[in-house]
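queue> pop job 88
queue> type: inverse folding (structure -> sequence)
queue> payload:
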């Protein structure tokens, strides 16, 4: 695609030394940024918060922004940047989805702009750079990952950091400025704080230095790279500090060994099903499972096969343009997919197998490597030209042979053609390459249209499943029902619907937390007002506690226990309480003065389990009841503990159960 988008630098200089159309290219960049921003805004705006988003907000609630919170594992990952994003969101406007869309649009536009600047630095301001930038901007592996806030919160900052790290490394290598080396290392550290796989970018840097940022024979290149040892040290230290902390604090605990065959299988699946089709704007079609609204790639065979044809064409074109140096460029996506997929497989293969290779977030960073590799392979440049664009001194030894752009076959042909002055201006030898370029341009334009159309179809099909997520309708319906119930609305504080937040995210995500984020005023678990129960869709219904177990109270006694002064009392449960989902303990009491007790469920092995709101329970009225939200695998007794000599409480009827609405309602 890129080869036909421009003429080589050598041919332009000899045959038609016209001024570069920089203004048109920059107008094209503005168009690319505007289209991508609008596309991202539309797709993100149609979605809403999803499972992990709510779980991360829940963890951030009530937490201070300290080191313990920032380094709390996400599964077994160390991602303090991700924790920071959701802490800021929870402490400002937790469910302000529009603000997150704006942030994603702005940051992704900035990432695309910085990529364009990097490619201009490496290859010059030319049409091919704009083509690569445009294809990157609309790639489904980029766009679809941004629609989900959790993946965007990790991947977009990591993408920005990766581009900045490479940019500053290039500038350091060609100018020798140590501050650029330090900036590159800090960018890698920042990216790893959001997405640990950003460390792979560190492997790109020596490949770029040896292949494109130094000149001369192999020994001269190696000497040039080693001469920058201070810069390499400054770049390496920050990410290595992250790695040391990661290892010494036992993150990555799910890592398991995999065989070479398993690694080859998952890498091959990632290429055939995800990365390869994405080069054509794929995968075109997706698959998903019940209750999961983030789809997995499932391209038709013809899309994957056509991607292999495109790969072969790009390899041939790269060889024709830059000869063996193109292999350095293509090594970047190769390293990214092999090392990156291998890192994920170490921690996830035993649980998910090859499914992880069709999970788009795990292949997100390969897109940057593909863009960088394609530009370097198809757009000839030289270390001297890069140094000139960076405003630094040339890193090519004075005695190095002329290479890079002038070694391109198309450039050599242009030089030979320029010598044939006696031929008429429109003679056959001059027309044939023009016709060939025109034909190649038509084919390239058609392929671009197909790729862009395929990318649009792929994104829309991904979005179709994504917008079926029931979270937003559930929250809207729940808040509407609460408002309709009026100012006396009183709800059982049960867990959020499992259709919205499955139990794998923890049983402590309660409706009170969710409605608190919306700003809805409602009471919970009061015993003096009719209680309402929210169903899985967010509708409210009157409900009562269905007992699963009761306190063993003698029939003739008003009080099961008289808690007088300091002490601990144990009330057996009959029958033994089984594990409950959305369980509640209801306690009736009689007293003269308000008191405070600590209440626990006792398990069969003697452990005391406090209610979700904590063991400390206030009993404020003379004659009343209290309702406590409890979670326990099983329980054999209720334990009451008094720490005040003034307490004198008659503890009466105790019921443990779950709320159910009457049949037919």
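queue> result:
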């Amino acid at each position: 695609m890129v080869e036909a988008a421009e003429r080589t630098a050598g041919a332009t200089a000899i045959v038609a030394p016209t001024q570069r159309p920089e203004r048109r290219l920059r107008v094209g960049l503005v168009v690319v940024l505007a289209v991508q921003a609008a596309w991202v805004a539309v797709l993100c705006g149609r979605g809403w918060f999803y499972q992990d988003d709510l779980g991360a907000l829940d963890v951030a609630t009530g937490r201070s922004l300290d080191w313990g919170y920032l380094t709390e594992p996400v599964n077994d990952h160390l991602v303090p940047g991700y924790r920071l994003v959701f802490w800021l969101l929870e402490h400002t406007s937790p469910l302000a989805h529009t603000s997150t869309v704006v942030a994603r649009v702005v940051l992704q536009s900035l990432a695309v702009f910085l990529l364009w600047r990097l490619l201009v630095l490496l290859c010059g301001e030319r049409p091919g750079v704009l083509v690569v930038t445009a294809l990157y901007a609309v790639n489904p592996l980029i766009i679809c990952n941004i629609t989900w806030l959790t993946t965007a919160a990790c991947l977009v900052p990591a993408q920005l950091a990766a581009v900045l790290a490479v940019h500053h490394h290039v500038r350091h290598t060609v100018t020798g400025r140590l501050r650029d080396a330090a900036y590159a290392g800090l960018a890698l550290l920042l990216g790893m704080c959001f997405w640990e796989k950003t460390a792979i970018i560190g492997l790109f840097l020596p490949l770029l230095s040896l292949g494109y940022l130094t000149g001369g024979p192999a020994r001269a290149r190696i000497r040039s790279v080693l001469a920058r040892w201070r810069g390499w040290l400054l770049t390496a230290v920050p990410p290595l500090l992250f790695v040391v902390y990661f290892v010494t604090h036992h993150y990555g605990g799910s890592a398991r060994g995999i065989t070479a065959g398993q690694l080859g299988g998952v890498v091959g699946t990632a290429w055939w099903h995800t990365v390869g089709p994405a080069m054509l704007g794929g995968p075109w079609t997706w698959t998903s499972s019940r209750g999961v609204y983030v789809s997995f790639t499932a391209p038709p065979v013809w899309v994957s096969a056509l991607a292999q044809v495109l790969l072969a064409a790009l390899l041939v074109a790269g060889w024709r343009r830059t000869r063996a140096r193109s292999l350095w460029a293509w090594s970047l996506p190769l390293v990214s997919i092999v090392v990156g997929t291998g890192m994920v497989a170490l921690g996830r293969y035993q649980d998910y197998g090859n499914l992880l290779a069709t999970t788009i977030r795990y292949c997100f960073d390969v897109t940057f490597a593909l863009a960088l590799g394609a530009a370097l392979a198809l757009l000839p440049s030289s270390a001297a030209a890069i140094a000139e664009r960076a405003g630094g001194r040339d890193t090519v030894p004075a005695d190095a042979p002329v290479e890079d752009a002038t070694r391109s076959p198309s450039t050599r042909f242009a030089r030979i053609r320029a010598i044939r002055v006696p031929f008429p201006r429109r003679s056959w030898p001059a027309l044939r390459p023009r016709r060939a370029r025109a034909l190649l341009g038509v084919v390239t334009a058609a392929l671009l249209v197909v790729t862009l159309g395929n990318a649009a179809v792929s994104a829309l099909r991904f979005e179709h499943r994504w917008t079926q997520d029931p979270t937003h309708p559930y929250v809207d319906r729940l808040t509407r029902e609460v408002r309709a119930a009026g100012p006396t609305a009183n709800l059982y504080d049960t867990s959020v619907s499992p259709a919205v937040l499955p139990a794998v995210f923890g049983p402590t995500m309660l409706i009170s937390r969710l409605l608190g984020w919306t700003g809805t005023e409602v009471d919970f678990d009061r015993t003096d007002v009719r209680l309402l129960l929210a169903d899985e869709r967010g509708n409210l219904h009157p409900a009562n506690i269905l007992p699963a177990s009761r306190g063993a109270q003698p029939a003739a006694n008003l009080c099961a226990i008289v808690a007088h002064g300091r002490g601990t009392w144990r009330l057996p449960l009959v029958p033994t309480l089984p594990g409950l989902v959305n369980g509640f303990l209801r306690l009736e009491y009689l007293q003269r003065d308000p008191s405070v007790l600590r209440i626990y469920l006792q398990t069969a092995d003697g452990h005391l389990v406090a209610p979700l709101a904590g063991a400390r329970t206030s009993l404020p009225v003379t004659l009343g009841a209290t309702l406590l939200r409890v979670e326990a695998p099983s329980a054999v007794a209720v334990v009451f503990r008094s720490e005040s000599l003034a307490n004198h409480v008659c503890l009466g009827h105790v019921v443990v159960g779950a709320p159910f609405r009457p049949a037919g309602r």
